[in-house]
Design goal:
Blueprint: H1 2-9, H2 13-33, H3 36-57, E1 60-64, E2 69-72, E3 77-79, E4 88-93, H4 95-99, E5 107-111, E6 123-126, E7 132-133, E8 140-145, E9 148-151, E10 153-164, E11 173-174, E12 177-185, E13 188-194, H5 195-198, E14 204-206, E15 219-226, E16 232-233, E17 237-246, E18 249-261, H6 264-269, E19 270-276, E20 279-286, H7 288-291, E21 300-304, E22 312-317, E23 319-321, E24 330-335, E25 338-345
Parallel strand pairs: 2-5, 10-14, 18-21
Antiparallel strand pairs: 1-4, 3-10, 4-8, 5-7, 6-9, 10-13, 11-12, 12-17, 13-16, 14-15, 15-17, 18-20, 19-25, 20-24, 21-23, 22-25
Length: 346
């Protein structure tokens, strides 16, 4: 009887295992139920931290070389010379982002503060990450090298200068035409630059006017200005008003044959025994293109014997005329004006 009572009150092994399993699940349930809000917050923070750490663990470091610097200058100031230093950037980003990044799209833009300028002393550009422009927002700049650059600044001055052309006398002639004058509209321009550059500048030249070719008369031409490096000008172009004249020149012709003219009756009665001189020199005026084509024999130099009525020596006037086929030619002078003729009876 005692044995039966003991068996009834002592649990079996299967029941014991079942109770242990229920105890474990109950523990988990109790653990979740107990202070559950704090546990949810802790889990959320853990996941958030994981999400922040994992991308950074995959980040890659790289260097972007040769980044140009652009400076914003305060009014009235300029750089003495162009900044020839190009810093490099040490950056960090995910490889997929880095792959899309090109250094030629990136610049460093720095604003120069007027209050930090000390005249006569170099200005210190202190570059920082905020100056970097053109990078993807997911790329971090770790270092700018170099991050300090010295530049030299100068005050900007202005003055008014006349516009001129660079052509000499030989350039002002084209064929039968010459340039009488060249005037510019406007006649002066206002230039700005450093005192060092402006001190040696007394005029601004135009770059080109088409003076060659076949000029035929007055013309206007819009010219580009040849503005020196480092100088700013209120005009890029001016209008040239060119006045053109026809070139009239002269040429001397030597040994122009002296011809004797007489009517048929005189020819039967008299014979020219001697002519002194037999040739003369002639000075003719006209366009150079026409004069250079002529020869001495093209001119008509002659003596008329119409008034000779007996044998003897005569001092007769010489007449000269231009070639019949040529226009715009004038006889300016000839020598001698007379010739000695010896006439004999036939």
């Amino acid at each position: 009887m005692a044995m039966k009572t003991l068996q009834a009150t002592t649990p079996s092994r299967r029941q014991s295992n079942s109770m242990q399993k229920r105890s474990k699940w109950q523990f988990i349930v109790d653990f979740i139920k107990r202070d559950w809000l704090r546990k949810v917050i802790a889990l959320f923070l853990t996941l958030l931290l994981y999400g922040a750490i994992m991308p950074k663990a995959q980040e890659k470091k790289d260097t972007l070389p040769y980044i140009p610097i652009n400076v914003e200058l305060p009014p009235g100031w300029m750089l003495s010379k162009k900044i020839d230093i190009h810093p490099s950037l040490k950056v960090v980003a995910h490889p997929s982002v880095m792959k899309k990044t090109k250094s030629n799209n990136v610049t460093i833009n720095h604003k120069i503060q007027l209050e930090n300028i000390v005249p006569g002393e170099p200005y210190r550009l202190q570059l920082n990450n905020a100056d970097v422009q053109g990078l993807d927002k997911n790329i971090r700049v770790e270092e700018i090298s170099p991050d300090t650059i010295l530049v030299h600044l100068e005050k900007v001055l202005s003055k008014e200068l006349p516009v001129k052309h660079p052509y000499g006398p030989a350039d002002m002639v084209s064929g039968d035409y010459e340039i009488k004058s060249i005037k510019f509209v406007p006649e002066t321009v206002t230039v700005s630059g450093s005192e060092r550059l402006l001190s040696s500048l007394d005029s601004i030249n135009i770059s080109y006017i088409p003076l060659g070719g076949r000029l035929r008369g007055n013309f206007s031409y819009e010219c580009d200005l040849d503005i020196p490096a480092g100088i700013q000008c209120n005009q890029n172009k001016v209008t040239a008003q060119v006045e053109v004249n026809k070139v009239m020149t002269s040429r001397n012709f030597q040994a122009v044959p002296l011809l004797i003219t007489q009517n048929a009756e005189h020819t039967r009665k008299f014979q020219v025994a001697k002519v002194e001189p037999e040739t003369i020199s002639v000075s003719a005026g006209g366009t150079w293109s026409t004069l250079k084509q002529l020869q001495s024999q093209d001119f008509n130099a002659s003596i008329k014997l119409d008034k000779v009525d007996k044998p003897g020596q005569y001092e007769l006037p010489v007449t000269v005329s231009t070639p019949a086929a040529v226009s715009n030619i004038k006889i300016k002078n000839f020598h001698p004006k007379t010739a000695r003729i010896t006439v004999a009876q036939e």
